[in-house]
Specification:
The protein is of the alpha/beta class and 220 residues long. Helix content is 35%, strand content 18%. The protein is globular and about 45 Å long. It starts with a strand and ends with a strand.
Length: 220
């Protein structure tokens, strides 16, 4: 297990790509907190509008945008950078040849260049949710376009970690568990009945570690 406080990671500027609002806290909350503390959080980007968690919940996408902004503030203690939303339809990811996918690659490639991003953290490619694996495909396409300028690491939300034979494990410093829980509580739509019947995050997933483990694919 390697530490993100070691070279070459300790001076890297990060873009965190999350499929939905709440995935940022569940999978990369400690990374976001650490990067923000040292002025190295370039951007938090959400792939989808998060509207698929409830049926017939009017205004849910707007609710989840507000929840995302509050969660990021609670993780970082800062109002900037504001979250960026690509607004893909939840649970309807674009395929790599689609105009939506190509446009998103161009937008994020430009963002990475402008903000001097050195690494992208994204949900693991083997995650079972279609939006999580789509986020990984998007990140890999951005990395390929960068031609060696970007490192890419993965984090797990719903899946078991990848094998140590295929991936190097990187660990973040610890953050306050209470602060992370408070950030997760910003996502009321996913924890309560505030938006009516729909998805509820299981209680066991609400118990989060103080640090994150990230996964870097080994060179072949």
């Amino acid at each position: 297990m390697r530490s993100l406080t070691e070279r070459p990671w300790r001076h890297v500027r990060w873009l965190v790509l999350a499929p939905h609002p709440d995935d940022e806290t569940l999978g990369a909350g400690a990374l976001i907190h650490q990067a923000a503390c040292f002025g190295r959080l370039a951007a938090l980007v959400y792939l989808t509008d998060g509207s698929g968690s409830h049926e017939n919940a009017r205004g849910l996408a707007a609710v989840r945008r507000r929840e995302a902004a509050l969660a990021l503030f609670r993780l970082t203690g800062r109002r900037l950078p504001r979250p960026i939303h690509l607004d893909w339809k939840d649970a309807h990811p674009g395929i790599p040849a689609s105009s939506e996918f190509v446009r998103s690659v161009a937008v994020l490639d430009s963002l990475c260049r402008r903000l001097h991003v050195g690494a992208i953290a994204v949900t693991a490619a083997h995650e079972p949710h279609c939006d999580h694996s789509a986020a990984a495909r998007l990140a890999h396409a951005i990395q390929a376009k960068a031609r060696g300028r970007l490192r890419l690491v993965e984090y797990c939300v719903w899946s078991a970690p990848p094998s140590e034979r295929s991936h190097i494990r990187l660990k973040t410093p610890s953050m306050s568990a209470g602060r992370r829980r408070k950030a997760l509580r910003a996502h009321r739509s996913q924890l309560t009945t505030s938006c009516g019947p729909g998805f509820r995050l299981p209680a066991d997933r609400q118990r989060m570690p103080a640090s994150d483990t990230l996964f870097l694919r080994r060179s072949r």
